[in-house]
Amino acid sequence: MEKLLHSTTSRTSLPDCFVFPADQVPPATSAAVSLPVIDMSCSRDEVRRAMLDAGKDLGFFQVVNHGISEQALLEMAAVGEEFFRLPAEEKLPFYSEDANKATRLFSGTTYETGGEKYWRDCLRFAYDFGAGDRIKDWPDKPRRLREVAENFTVLTRGLAMDLLRLLCEGLGLQHDYFEGDLTGGDVTLDINHYPPCPNPSVTLGLPPHCDRDLIAVLLPGPVPGLEVVYKGEWVKVVADPTVPHALVVNLGQQLEVVTNGVLRSIEHRVMTNSAMARTSVALFVAPTEDCLVGPAEKFLSQENPPCYRTLKFHEFKRTYNVVKLGSSINQRTNLRNTQKEI
């Protein structure tokens, strides 16, 4: 299992494939941004307004009183960390470099347009809500991983759908606009593990990117690492320790497309840490492969023409994949331009 970063002995230097030119790893400013905290126990009107404000500005926010129990969150975090502590031989059957394999363990993601590798190991699950035995290909160790991960997946997708309905109400869309094919694709659950890194200043855990899906919900863990582009600069995202059991919500590229740019999908990246490992869990809700995604009529007029072409989701992903991720702080703009109406 030498290809898994966390399974190798501690390194004192980085292999060349993990080292980026300085202009591709610009340091974050000394400023930091606290994500807006949205209390879902407030009135629907208050929650809608807060979500729209955050979605138009930062594209990220935290939710509390979201209805997912503390126990479910703690168990998910615990089994994720426990998986990466398993002996190498127990993880080996799930390792694959085939990006088309729905459930797999992989490392050092390499994007199509370059040979860069990122300081991350990832256990990825696919969950098809329309299938029978949805978890038969999932790892069966640690003992409760399947049970805990499935429970977290079902609960968190339910939360994501609630958030989308609230956004519909706030945007003036039909409340079920995102039901059906727009959210009917496989749900993806990533358990990301970023081992301690000998030189965090010259590498990345994940490159600058905008999520290609509709919406993502993140269980972040206690070790920081998320950075976002805010007002043209990279800034660190800081968690408020007085807000326990918050989940981070990230609006994906498809929401920006549907709202014709009213809501923003913000470029973000993950930095590494020299002293501590970081483990996070991210759930992504996406359209079906053949779903046509484009700006909703609600956001179009003679004065406000479409900013994006209407594409099938699999076509969008192909466009997304050929954009060189991590190339510059303008990645989001570059990606948007490839999708612009012509």
TrEMBL record:
Gene Ontology molecular function: metal ion binding; oxidoreductase activity
UniProt domain Fe2OG dioxygenase: residue ranges: 184-287
SUPFAM superfamilies: Clavaminate synthase-like
InterPro entries xref list: DIOX_N, IPNS-like_FE2OG_OXY, IPNS-like_sf, Oxoglu/Fe-dep_dioxygenase_dom, Plant_2OG-oxidoreductases
Keywords: Iron, Metal-binding, Oxidoreductase
Xref: PANTHER family: OXOGLUTARATE/IRON-DEPENDENT DIOXYGENASE
Family to which the UniProt record says this protein belongs: Belongs to the iron/ascorbate-dependent oxidoreductase family.
Protein name: Fe2OG dioxygenase domain-containing protein
Organism of this sequence: Zea mays (Maize)
Organism classification: Eukaryota, Viridiplantae, Streptophyta, Embryophyta, Tracheophyta
